Amino acid sequence: MNPFTRLYQKIVGAYRFIQHYGQHLPLATKAIFDLSCTVMTIRGSIRGSGDLVVLLYVGRRWNEEFLINLFFDSHEILACDELNVFTARARSEVLAREADIEIIDIGWPYGGRLKKHQRYLEFADWLNMILPLEGDWDDIVRSFRNTTRNNDLRLIRRNQYRFEVTNDQRMIESFYDDMYVPTASRRYGEASIIAPRKHVLKRARQGELLQIYKKNQLVIAGVIYPEDDVLYFLWQGSPPRFQERPAEAAASALYYFGIRYAFDHEMTAVDFAGTRAFLNFGDFRFKRKWGAMVDDSFSPNSVLLRPLNNHDNTILLCETIPLLARSDEGLEAVVVRSGETVNTDMLERLVKNYDCAGLDRILVISVS
What we know:
Blueprint lengths: L2 H19 L3 H9 L2 E11 L5 E8 L4 H8 E13 L3 H8 L5 E5 L5 H5 L5 E4 L2 E6 L4 H7 L2 H13 L2 E6 L2 H20 L8 H10 L1 E7 L2 E11 L2 E8 L9 H18 L4 E7 L6 H7 L4 E3 L6 E6 L4 H9 L2 E4 L4 E8 L5 H11 L6 E7 L1
Helix pairs in contact: 7-10, 8-9
């Protein structure tokens, strides 16, 4: 490759990076100067099965807590070294001899250094989910999944939910202190990412606090923020003594009335914000059922995954974490199956369970 071609490719790559992730450039710039890197091995009990695997984690601990909680019911740290992104590879090669699966969580811009040496499955730490508002209201409702139209909308009608919007300062402050922070902390534990109070209050004043009531009782609320004809769903939370049954019904009302609010205000899309890149992750499944498409414009960071052997427990862990991977063509759903014949019935079932607008394809890896 001649120097001019290489320079052209770098310019095109930089343009595409800014086009996709320009809103995160301040955070991305900070990432350049964060050279710390942890190398550790973790023995964990695979969630739902109890089988043991050893995970080699190499990264800046941005997604460590989430991944460990996603993979394991319980775990113990076998070895842990605090190094930097330039010295981590040598130590990781040593620990890889005793591990079953490897995760590289170094992220932009240093993750590519390790990717050059081995073949990894690459997935985003966060993806975006967006619902385009096209056609009339009936067209939008038809874009919801069948279960949403048959179950969720029925629950909203049966519970007689209604919505109000407000910019009242006291209500916004109460939402942050009494609803948003406790809900996020309870749901995600140590892996929760709590937005700063000042930032949430500012966005709520600029947008609206969408409140869902059942009769006169507030059951859930969320901050919605309009920008460039797009309505952004930013944060949500429930009161301390939240007792709606099923719990999902109130969240469904928040999404339904938020979508209706965006349509009535002639928005072109609803941005449901981020989701993790795992097909069984609750946020992804919930947002998908409202017709949202998945979009790789939320984060430039990649997490790299590589099985280190073909042991039964390694394959089992890979089976339990179907994910949305980055490829040259776009996003693809990667599903591992063992001891099961790939046939039409299986493929139809996988399409029903995992297909989503924005996916380029579903890749099934069959292990015999």
